[in-house]
User: Which sequence fits this backbone?
């Protein structure tokens, strides 16, 4: 069995246990956290390719092709040359920026060679990907300052001491005009103008500069100059990376493969990408308590994408805990605490993660809905024959419609909270439960859970007291 296989076996046993237990969670975090440093060179080529593909949106031309390249490099006695381009556009970094670095760390620990291209030339042009307007160019001082901040904040997720750093000014600053014209002459303008962001800008009457058109070509020349075997980047960089394949062919070289990673949704659950401008981000320089609390505030539906993005859990382990939630043997809140612990462990260490967990639990356990004045009330005697979704939409006006209430339930955001002398106990209501009359579903769920006390109906962050049950 491989080293990863041994770890998966141990973690699988822990994931089957009580994940509300601090002792179990601490052992689990220690096990999965250690994987960030686990040597993966003993994995067969196919398993390496699948481990990368499991966290990717695209592996092009194919996962099979990646496995073949890995095996060919292994037979030749070396690893693949994996490229990631960085245009250091800001000094402060958030958790979304770590996604490609975590996948890059896997390549690194599999024994492949990682080359980070510092775009000191391309950063001055401005990457137009996904933008509706031109991006202001950066100075050399901006780039140096931003790069230092980037390295310092991302280093918990990636070993910067085991990479080759190249600045693309090494070749782009001195590129001769005849050579550049020769490359551009073989690239149809239509392939550059087909970008949706460019079309949107032009149709809206906004400007589009020639430097922005050349940006993908400049980035592609980077791949050709370093003989990249595979390029990694966000899914929004796909067109730029495909240009890399084209330019490598122009150079007479074997085209690189492409791996794209997802753009992670922000913490507010609005569907927007995590970004500082929208305030839906988790800064890497945040305290352990702040990181833990921000993770605990996310909608339940984001737990699986976040587990995939920021942990070293396997797909099988994620399937194991989601199956437990569906069966009712694992509460979503317990899994969210584990997720929060995973992220804090990565940034601040296991000790800080367990302290943040304890602090959050203590704060949460002190809360009592009975201490809150003027909570809305649902009287089962008056409204017990109405479906829960109808009550949320009409009686309480917690949701704009019954269908919206169903979506909350589908995301595990609808629950009954029972307050007893020993604290709170939450019971998740499924989408099917939410369609049933309140007077039927509440007594049934409380009997199944074996609890009694003051009952509250919680939809997302909104709470109402339920009387008469």
Assistant:
């Amino acid at each position: 069995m491989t080293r990863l296989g041994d770890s998966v076996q141990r973690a699988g046993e822990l994931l089957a246990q009580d994940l509300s237990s601090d002792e179990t969670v601490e052992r689990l975090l220690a096990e999965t956290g250690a994987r960030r440093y686990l040597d993966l060179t003993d994995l067969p080529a196919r398993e390496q390719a699948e481990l990368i593909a499991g966290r990717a949106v695209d592996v092009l031309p194919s996962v099979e092709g990646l496995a073949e390249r890995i095996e060919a490099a292994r037979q030749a006695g070396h690893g693949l040359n994996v490229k990631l381009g960085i245009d250091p556009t800001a000094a402060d970094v958030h958790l979304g920026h770590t996604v490609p670095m975590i996948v890059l760390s896997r390549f690194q620990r599999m024994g492949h060679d990682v080359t980070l291209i510092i775009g000191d030339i391309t950063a001055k042009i401005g990457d137009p990907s996904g933008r509706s307007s031109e991006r202001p160019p950066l100075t050399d001082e901006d780039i140096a300052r931003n790069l230092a901040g980037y390295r310092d904040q991302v280093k918990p997720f990636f070993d910067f001491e085991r990479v080759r750093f190249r600045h693309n000014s090494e070749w782009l600053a001195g590129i001769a005009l005849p050579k550049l014209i020769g490359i551009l002459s073989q690239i149809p303008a239509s392939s550059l103008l087909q970008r949706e962001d460019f079309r949107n800008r032009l149709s809206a009457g906004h400007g589009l500069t020639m430097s922005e058109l050349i940006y993908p070509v400049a980035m592609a020349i980077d791949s050709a100059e370093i003989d990249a075997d595979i390029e990694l980047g966000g899914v929004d960089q796909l067109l730029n990376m495909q240009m890399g394949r084209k330019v490598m062919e122009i150079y007479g070289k074997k085209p690189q493969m492409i791996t794209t990673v997802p753009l992670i949704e922000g913490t507010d659950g609005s569907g927007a990408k995590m970004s500082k401008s929208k305030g839906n981000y988790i800064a890497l320089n945040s305290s352990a308590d702040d990181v833990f609390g921000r993770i605990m505030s996310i909608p339940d539906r984001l737990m699986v994408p976040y587990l995939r993005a920021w942990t070293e859990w396997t797909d099988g382990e994620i399937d194991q805990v989601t199956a437990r939630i569906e069966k009712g043997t694992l509460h979503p809140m317990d899994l969210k605490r584990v997720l929060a612990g995973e992220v804090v462990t990565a940034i601040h260490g296991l000790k800080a993660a367990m302290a943040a967990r304890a602090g959050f639990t203590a704060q949460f356990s002190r809360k009592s809905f009975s201490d809150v004045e003027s909570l809305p009330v649902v009287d089962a005697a008056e409204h017990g024959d109405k479906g829960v979704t109808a009550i949320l939409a009409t009686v309480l006006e917690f949701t704009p419609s019954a269908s919206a209430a169903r979506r909350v339930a589908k995301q595990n955001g609808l629950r009954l909270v029972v307050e007893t002398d020993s604290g709170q106990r939450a019971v998740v209501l499924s989408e099917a439960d939410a369609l049933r009359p309140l007077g039927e579903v509440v007594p049934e769920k409380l009997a199944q859970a074996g609890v009694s006390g003051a009952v509250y109906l919680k939809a997302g962050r909104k709470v109402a007291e339920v009387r008469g049950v």
